[in-house]
Amino acid sequence: MFAVFKKELKTYFLTPLGYIFIAVFMALFSVVFYSMIFSGGEEGVLAKFEYVIANSIVILTFITPVLTMRMFAEEKAQGTDQLLFTSPRSIVGIVFGKFLAAAAVILITIALMMIYFFILSKFADPSLKVALVAMLGFLLISLAYISFGMFASSIASSQLIAAIITIGFFVITSFFNYTSDSIMSIFSLMGMYQKFPLGVIALKEVIGFVSFIGLFLLLTMIILQRRKSVK
Asked: What distance in Å separates the CA atoms of residue 77 and residue 172, rounded to the nearest whole number?
């Protein structure tokens, strides 16, 4: 697993992929930050940093495929997936290695986001505790997005199709009602996130995110194992 993690992390930062993700996200995050915090003058300065984070989740919907679309779809398109399946590494190690490498990029992004918290601290008195809880929620939903993006990449025949599936799923599920009794509510990631900007870590939502991540990592492993057995 560590070898895959190291290889994938190098791929993100020896190619433009990781830099593109971080640069695009931070550029858009900056726009959201300054429009929400400073555009309203004195009143705007008092805006909540945690709600800036919440509004920035929309950005993830459209740029997460930068991290995930090539994971398996690229190898399938190039025919190099046979090397992947004949390697001594296990499917579990491959999936978790790729997942953790993408997670590392997210952690770097979160560290950069915290710079804006300290900028805001010069003008107002934002709550560090609430901001950290909101960041935890941001990390969980980011990991959930990555897990589904990996699954999409494992079933898609090209990177473009993987990106379309990923974005389409996020957009559609953003309209699901988390409080309903429908089984579809378990896919309402935005609904699960709602308590985090309030500074509340709810066990139900944490379990929901972890279950979502585990489900799509497991489905990815099943897809790859079936492809390996066919090969």
From this structure: 27
Gap between the Cα atoms of 172 and 126, Å rounded: 33
The tokens of 124 are what? 């107002």
In whole angstroms, what is the distance from residue 49 CA to residue 61 CA?
20
Q: What is the pLDDT of residues 58-92, one digit of tens each?
A: 999 999 999 999 998 877 767 666 666 667 778 89
Residues constituting the chain: 231
Residue with tokens 């990029």: 105
Specify the pLDDT at position 44.
52
Name 155's Cβ contacts closer than 8 Å, sequence gap at least 6. 165, 223
What letter would DSSP give residue 181?
S
Q: Using CA atoms in the order 176, 181, 183, 187, what is the torsion angle rounded to 10 degrees? A: 40
Closest CA to 134 of 110, 118, 112, 115: 110
For residue 219, the one-letter residue type is L
CB 215 within 8 A of CB 148: no
Contacts of residue 219, Cβ cutoff 8 Å, sequence gap at least 6: 151, 154
Q: Which amino acid is at 178?
A: Y
Provide CB contacts within 8 A for 178, sequence distance 6+.
185, 188, 190, 191, 192, 194
Candidates 147, 140, 130, 145; CA nearest to 110 is 140
CA atoms of 1 and 220, how far apart (whole Å): 16
